[in-house]
Design brief:
Radius of gyration: 22 Å
Order of helices and strands: EEEHHHEHEHEHEEEHEEEHHHEEHEEH
Largest sheet: 7 strands, mixed
Number of helices: 12
Structural class: alpha/beta
Bound molecules: pyridoxal-5'-phosphate
Strand order of the largest sheet: 4-12-11-10-7-5-6
Number of strands: 16
Helix content: 25-40%
């Protein structure tokens, strides 16, 4: 059989170097299955989106039911039961004070919406604040706006001329938190519009963890200077860090919060940006020029909203919190031996997420060992996609100890093969 090369251009993929992509035809729980019948353990939740497991029956049923009822409707001048119910439930379960819900369709758009809400708030209240503060190593998406607020590197060098300037605060590394807080205090004196953070853990920047009290302190500084705090919970939301939302661990309510990946349990693209009453109020006017000018064709798509509602029902009706706690314990038990393994550094865990850096002479996103690690895990039937020399395990909540044994066994073998002598 001959076939012409695929016209598909894959994301974050160097086609001249990458192996043929795996043809995945089925998903079930923590496992994927390929066209040739090979099974792959999804140890990164298919890019951090799958929470309960692939093809959870409740979510599948909700999607099928909604698809036969109402597939899509314009969301300006119209609404539908799934969006209304979902918005009410989100307001009830997110930190108190987040009272308005704006829908979009990806994490990047949720953050873009947050930035536009902040800009609109200051414009409409008559204060000329436009500068955004952000954390070093942050990641908020791949659109022009979200690349602007994220870390600069090889992955956005070509687009640098299009990116706007932001003020970057040093990452609040353990023992050096005061430097971050001092930098924030200093930056706040210039009356910026907002501080944008990934609460407690920076994902794509390398699974870098910081303490809840630092987040609480950052929130307090922002409040003192009337700087809006935007929490990008796109990755951290829906249980990853051990609590439903990461902000809970710092007992804070941001002014604006973004959720996406796990919102539908990972089954469909959907995002929300929630905000406090003041932000909505600043746009509420008989003056049409103060409208919040944002939309996308599929704003609050009914099928995606139905999937999200099913996800919230799973949270309400199944012992998800218990599963998350148990998964954290299972992860810790397997991670522990690596804490004294000199071939690894910065062995760390937050809730269900575990990460460790394989010592390399060229650490970072383009570490030479990265592709070799990726190929090795692939051959082992494991979906583990290292961030350079950083290995991390962020599995769906149905993952068993036996599943994790395979992952950590492979990590140990990888260290023998590719680690320092
Ligand atoms: C993945 C991610 C985004 C972007 O979400 P997309 O749905 O890929 O656009 C934004 N912020 C964080 C923290 C993320 O992890």
């Amino acid at each position: 059989m001959t076939s012409s090369p695929s016209p598909v251009w894959h994301p974050f993929t160097q086609h001249a170097l990458a192996p043929e992509p795996a043809m995945v035809v089925r998903g079930d729980g923590a496992w994927l299955e390929t066209a040739t019948g090979a099974r792959i353990l999804d140890a990164i939740s298919s890019w951090w989106v799958i929470t309960h497991g692939h093809c959870h029956p409740r979510i599948v049923a909700a999607i099928a039911g909604q698809a036969g009822q109402l597939d899509q409707v314009i969301f300006a001048g119209h609404t539908h039961p799934a969006a209304e119910a979902l918005a009410r439930r989100l307001v009830a379960m997110t930190p108190p004070g987040l009272d308005h819900v704006f829908f979009s369709d990806s994490g990047s758009t949720a953050v873009e919406v947050a930035l536009k809400m902040a800009a609109g708030y200051w414009r409409n209240t008559g204060e000329p604040r436009t500068r955004i503060l952000a954390l070093e190593h942050g990641y908020h998406g791949d659109t022009i706006g979200t690349m602007s607020v994220g870390a600069r590197g090889v992955y956005n060098a070509a687009y640098e001329p299009f990116l706007f300037e932001v003020t970057r605060l040093p990452f609040p590394e353990a023992g050096r938190e005061q430097a971050t807080l001092d930098a924030l205090e200093a930056a706040c004196r210039e009356a910026p519009a907002a501080l944008l953070v990934e609460p407690l853990i920076l994902g794509a920047g390398g699974m870098l963890i910081y303490a809840p009290d630092v987040l609480a302190e950052m929130a307090a500084i922002c409040a003192r200077h009337r700087v809006l705090l935007i929490a990008d919970e796109v990755m951290t939301g829906f249980g990853r860090t051990g609590t439903l939302f990461a902000c809970e661990q710092a007992a804070i309510t941001p002014d604006i919060a973004c959720y996406a990946k796990g919102l539908t349990g990972g089954a469909l693209p959907l995002a929300v940006t929630l905000c406090r009453g003041e932000i909505f109020a600043a746009h509420y006017s008989t003056d049409r020029a103060r409208t919040f000018f944002h939309s996308s064709s599929f704003t609050a798509n009914p099928i995606a909203c139905a999937a999200a509602l099913a996800n919230l029902e799973i949270w309400a009706g199944e012992p998800v919190a218990g599963r998350i706690a148990a998964l954290g314990t299972l992860q810790e038990a397997r991670l522990a031996p690596f804490r004294d393994d000199r071939r690894f550094s910065n062995v760390r865990r937050l809730g269900t997420i575990a990460a460790l850096d394989l010592v390399a002479d060229d650490p970072g996103y383009l570490a030479g060992v990265g592709p070799r690690l990726a190929a090795f895990f692939r051959a082992e039937g494991l979906l583990v996609r290292p961030l350079g020399n950083t290995l991390y395990v962020m599995p769906p909540y149905c993952t068993t100890g036996e599943d994790l044994d395979r992952v950590y066994g492979a990590i140990a073998t990888a260290a023998d093969r590719f680690g320092p002598a």
